[in-house]
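Entry — protein

Goal — fold tokens:
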Amino acid sequence: MSGPAKGAHPFGSWRCQQCHHSFSMESAATQDEAEEGGQPLGESWLNLTASVTGAGKQKNPVPSESFHAQMEEKRIIKELACEHTMPLYPLCEGCTAQVMAELAAARDQARKDCEMYETQFALLSQREQEEDSNSREQIEEDLRQAEEEEQALIEKSHALELERTALRKKMTELEQNAVLLEQMQKCYWREYNDLQLQLRSSDRDSLRRKIDNVTMQLEALNKTNVINDAFYISHSEIYGTINGFRLGSVPSQPVEWEEINAAWGQTALLLQTLVSCWDFTFPLYRVAPMGSFSRIIKRDDDKCVWDLYCQSDMGFGRLFGYGSFDKGMAAFLECVRALQDHVRSVDTSFSPPYRIVDHKVEEFSVKLQFNTYERWTKALKYMLTNIKWLVASSLSRRS
């Protein structure tokens, strides 16, 4: 606040705290009091006149102490009303009117707010009463349901308690049974061990007898020659036979070529079986057993195939050879000789009764060319005899 100059009259020159214009105190204050109904200055608003010039002469001066007391009261009321938002006193007349208008607007707004608050308060009070009424009914309903649930839970708890008691009783019985079973199990194993000790000696004797029986059966099986049973070689007068088929023919006791061809097929199959048994491969030929139409094939030339069968007696053809049939029989005899040499290299005790050289067994040829049926039949008989020795040697190899 800007006060009067030093030594000046109390109604000297002042500066407005809002518009910063200089003004002077006038005697109009007394007139204003009269217009307001003769009220004292401390109970009415102060009228201030703006002055462009410096302080003028004062009319109807007011005592200094009374004026300052009134100004202090105005200032305190103004600060309380405006919450320190308005500028400090003194103010000129224009600024004072502006402040009064703002205060009036704030008062009207405060009245409207107060009315609105009262209306809202009434609504809230009514709503609260309604909610209290509804909540009381809801609380009573919830309480009733809670009491029903409580009663149901109490009954359930009682049932569970009875069930727990029954389970405890049953568990006690099961524990007693478990102890009894454990004792019985121990007794059982004790008796079992005693029985095993008693039977051990008799079981040992029985097992030894079983081992002896199995050993005897094994020895009998080892002595059994399956090849000999499958290919039975024998002789019938001047003929050598295999599985009952005669191999050869003589004019006094002629044999059909179908039987001779079947005998050759059985002999070829037997030789191939013996080769498999000895895990041996013929170096020059390969035997192809095909029943009554068996053949022998040259190993290094698959197109060179010779027959081990004949369709009929060729008569005059004997003078010039049987061709494929003679070559096939000679090649077959060479295969028998090769297998004999292999067996002899493995088993030095092996010694067949008849010697094979080229296409002859001893001095008898297996070819029909320039040969007689008697000598040819005897050569085939000796060949079957040597093959039978090979069958016997296969049994010793397996043993």
Summary: Residues 93-223 form the longest helix (131 residues). The CA atoms of residues 318 and 369 lie 5 Å apart. The two ends are 143 Å apart (CA to CA).
